[in-house]
């Protein structure tokens, strides 16, 4: 691997989500200032895009080994126990992300089957929910990549 590890699709997705949030929020503020009214869709879309932005950013942070954790114990251990701790951390993270992916997919499928509509705009609810398992699955993949690189020594905790 050359340079810094990357998660380009998630970076693009996060950037696009942030640009759209900023644009519709600015348009809503200007419209409210000029007309006294506001766009009805901005809150629903902004919340959805904020969730997308959060998961995309978390995926990038995972890939770049920038998640918050206490590395004191890790740095104090010799290489053998350190690798065991890295594997343990990865297994715990994989369990959580696997559950989010599984139950998120199950929820999205149920919302699709039930034909549930969003409360604000009446759009199919699964349009919003399907991003949860997709992006948590991306985080799971980035976790595996990060763990592999940490175990081989090509990714360290040092900035």
Provide an overview of this structure.
By secondary structure, this protein is mainly α. It has helices at 8-35, 42-63, 72-76, 79-114, 126-129, 131-152. The chain has one domain. Helix 2 runs parallel beside helix 6 (131-152) and helix 4 runs antiparallel to helix 6 (131-152). The chain is elongated. The mean pLDDT is 91. The chain crosses the membrane at residues 12-33, 45-63, 84-105, 125-144. The complex comprises the extracytoplasmic solute receptor protein and the two transmembrane proteins. It holds the Pfam family DctQ. Residues 22-151 form the Tripartite ATP-independent periplasmic transporters DctQ component domain.
Compact description:
Pfam families: DctQ (PF04290). With 159 residues, the protein is mainly α.
């Amino acid at each position: 691997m050359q340079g810094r590890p990357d998660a380009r699709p998630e970076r693009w997705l996060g950037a696009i989500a942030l640009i759209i949030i900023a644009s519709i929020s600015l348009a809503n503020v200007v419209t409210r200032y000029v007309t006294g009214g506001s766009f009805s869709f901005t809150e629903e879309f902004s919340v959805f895009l904020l969730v997308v932005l959060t998961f995309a950013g978390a995926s990038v942070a995972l890939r770049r080994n920038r998640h918050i954790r206490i590395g004191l114990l890790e740095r104090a251990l010799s290489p053998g126990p350190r690798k065991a701790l890295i594997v343990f951390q990865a297994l715990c993270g994989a369990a959580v992300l696997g559950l989010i992916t599984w139950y998120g997919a199950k929820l999205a499928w149920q919302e699709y089957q039930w034909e549930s509509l969003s409360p604000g705009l009446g759009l199919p609810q699964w349009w919003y929910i399907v991003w949860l398992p997709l992006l948590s699955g991306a985080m799971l993949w980035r976790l595996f990549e990060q763990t592999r690189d940490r175990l081989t020594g090509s990714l360290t905790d040092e900035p």
